[in-house]
Amino acid sequence: MEYLYPDDSLILHTDAYELTMMQTYWKQGIGDRKAVFEAFFRKMPFKNGYAVFAGLSRIIEYLKNLRFTATDIEYLRSTGMFDPAFLDYLADFKFQGTLRSVVEGELVFNHEPILQVEGNLLETSLVETALLNVINFQIMIATKASRVKSVVGDQLLMEFGTRRAQEFDAALWGTRAAYIGGFDATSNVRAGKLFGIPISGTHAHALVQTYRDEYTAFKAYAQTHHDCVFLVDTFDTLKSGVPTAIRVAKEFGDRINFQGVRIDSGDMAYLSKQVRKMLDEAGFPEAKIFASNDLDEKTIQNLKMQGAKIDAWGVGTKLITSYDQPTLGAVYKLVSVENDQGEMVDTMKLSNNVTKVSTPGKHQVWRITDRADGKSEGDYVTLADEDPRQLDSLYMFDPQFTFLHKTVKDFVARPLLQDIFVDGELVYDEPSLDEIKHSHQERLNRLWDEYKRDLNPEVYPVDLSQKCYDNKMALIAQIHDYVQALGEEQDD
Ligand SMILES: Nc1ncnc2c1ncn2[C@@H]1O[C@H](COP(=O)(O)OP(=O)(O)OP(=O)(O)O)[C@@H](O)[C@H]1O
Ligand SMILES: O=P(O)(O)OC[C@H]1O[C@H](OP(=O)(O)OP(=O)(O)O)[C@H](O)[C@@H]1O
Ligand SMILES: O=C(O)c1cccnc1
């Protein structure tokens, strides 16, 4: 297949309505007006007690290169939807806005801003689709990975999902997100090259089928590799696979590093116990049992409950496709916009559905922790000009059930939204992937166990400052008055 144009750029990775709205703003002469958008999600993924932020690295790469190419403009012209003068403007477009974001590996919760884009109406509109596209996927995978990691503990956890992923990008960036969430290695070699994620793996059934019998196949592998994990379930795990793996391991002795065997079908609790006995009796107590086959955190936990003797886990489909929840549902909402008089006015989307009401104003999110033990007290969403670090005590209340409140003293408040781009300039020094991964585990250590259990976790508090809450209530009242007045006008 040949593409219609010889080159491709991500700037057209946007919904057509972003461009048509941009044309409206531009032609109406308000394109230069300032706007602030914030992204957040409404429901915790997998009903987990926390979510793991991922996707910033890709967003940085996207924003750095955000230019319309000659063929982008040519294509837009061919649609007949855009004014030639507007297209001339686009030809010189460059993202000159400010991006604030939570950093990768950080824990995030529903109803708090995790990305904030400040700039003119045009650039802040254009990037919505791509930004949401990235975080809606990567946060899901990083969170799922973190859940799997929480049941696997210190055992080896390998990502095997590429073949089942929703195409190339999802496999590659999903692997990276999984690594952030706690996976140790991947089978995806490209992810190894691009991100430095350790690659690892065993071999497929095809190897055994090619040589037609396990003995010849395992021997062939042992002759060509030092580290060997033999896949033992092609014919019969206990009767042929494991005895043959042991035979080859004995024959090759120190010439190979017999790491163990992989089981990929059957009752893995029963089989792993039998396999463990056989390996131990054969003098291979160090050999590990690898398992794969539609695993996820629930099956792994269940296998552990059954006393399965599995030492290393390969997880593919259910991780990389975010099998039990297809999207995070993150949204991108306008929270403040410049009016005719050049003033910034807060704005919100009011909905009949209470959970869909957004919080107006430009915000900061503060992670409040106890100064003594570093443990989480909750998150505190303020207007951007507030700084709770100046306070001796913090009154925190639930914005929905305001009678639920507490006063926190001796706390540390850490701002979560950090400057990434300021006026188009990248000001953020990205940590290495291993630092990000490590920071995720550190952050989890500060979270109380009650929020970390995988079933019915406690709801982590995300509270609004009084000023932020009052601002929201005032705007709701203002919108109600406006709607009522309009209704009365129509009745007259
Ligand atoms: N002891 C166990 N307890 C709970 N779940 C298990 C156990 N053993 C395997 N499973 C899981 O059960 C699911 C189905 O396993 P099953 O044995 O039916 O598949 P299979 O043997 O791979 O069959 P197929 O040959 O069709 O692939 C998999 O997700 C697997 O991880
Ligand atoms: O089950 P998942 O969590 O998705 O893990 C990846 C799966 O991919 C492989 O199977 P496949 O049948 O594709 O190839 P194989 O011949 O190597 O088993 C592997 O054996 C796993 O079962
Ligand atoms: O290396 C493996 O064992 C592997 C790799 C990808 C998918 N399934 C298994």
Automatic annotation (TrEMBL):
<dbReference type="GO" id="GO:0004516">
    <property type="term" value="F:nicotinate phosphoribosyltransferase activity"/>
</dbReference>
<keyword id="KW-0662">Pyridine nucleotide biosynthesis</keyword>
<dbReference type="InterPro" id="IPR036068">
    <property type="entry name" value="Nicotinate_pribotase-like_C"/>
</dbReference>
<dbReference type="Pfam" id="PF17767">
    <property type="entry name" value="NAPRTase_N"/>
</dbReference>
<dbReference type="GO" id="GO:0047280">
    <property type="term" value="F:nicotinamide phosphoribosyltransferase activity"/>
</dbReference>
<keyword id="KW-0328">Glycosyltransferase</keyword>
<dbReference type="InterPro" id="IPR007229">
    <property type="entry name" value="Nic_PRibTrfase-Fam"/>
</dbReference>
<feature type="domain" description="Nicotinate phosphoribosyltransferase N-terminal">
    <location>
        <begin position="12"/>
        <end position="136"/>
    </location>
</feature>
<comment type="similarity">
    <text>Belongs to the NAPRTase family.</text>
</comment>
<comment type="function">
    <text>Catalyzes the first step in the biosynthesis of NAD from nicotinic acid, the ATP-dependent synthesis of beta-nicotinate D-ribonucleotide from nicotinate and 5-phospho-D-ribose 1-phosphate.</text>
</comment>
<dbReference type="InterPro" id="IPR006405">
    <property type="entry name" value="Nic_PRibTrfase_pncB"/>
</dbReference>
<keyword id="KW-0808">Transferase</keyword>
<keyword id="KW-0436">Ligase</keyword>
<dbReference type="InterPro" id="IPR041525">
    <property type="entry name" value="N/Namide_PRibTrfase"/>
</dbReference>
<feature type="domain" description="Nicotinate/nicotinamide phosphoribosyltransferase">
    <location>
        <begin position="157"/>
        <end position="357"/>
    </location>
</feature>
<protein>
    <recommendedName>
        <fullName>Nicotinate phosphoribosyltransferase</fullName>
        <ecNumber>6.3.4.21</ecNumber>
    </recommendedName>
</protein>
<keyword id="KW-0597">Phosphoprotein</keyword>
<dbReference type="GO" id="GO:0034355">
    <property type="term" value="P:NAD+ biosynthetic process via the salvage pathway"/>
</dbReference>
<comment type="pathway">
    <text>Cofactor biosynthesis; NAD(+) biosynthesis; nicotinate D-ribonucleotide from nicotinate: step 1/1.</text>
</comment>
<feature type="domain" description="Nicotinate phosphoribosyltransferase C-terminal">
    <location>
        <begin position="362"/>
        <end position="471"/>
    </location>
</feature>
<dbReference type="Pfam" id="PF17956">
    <property type="entry name" value="NAPRTase_C"/>
</dbReference>
<dbReference type="InterPro" id="IPR013785">
    <property type="entry name" value="Aldolase_TIM"/>
</dbReference>
<dbReference type="GO" id="GO:0005829">
    <property type="term" value="C:cytosol"/>
</dbReference>
<dbReference type="InterPro" id="IPR040727">
    <property type="entry name" value="NAPRTase_N"/>
</dbReference>
<dbReference type="InterPro" id="IPR041619">
    <property type="entry name" value="NAPRTase_C"/>
</dbReference>
<dbReference type="Pfam" id="PF04095">
    <property type="entry name" value="NAPRTase"/>
</dbReference>
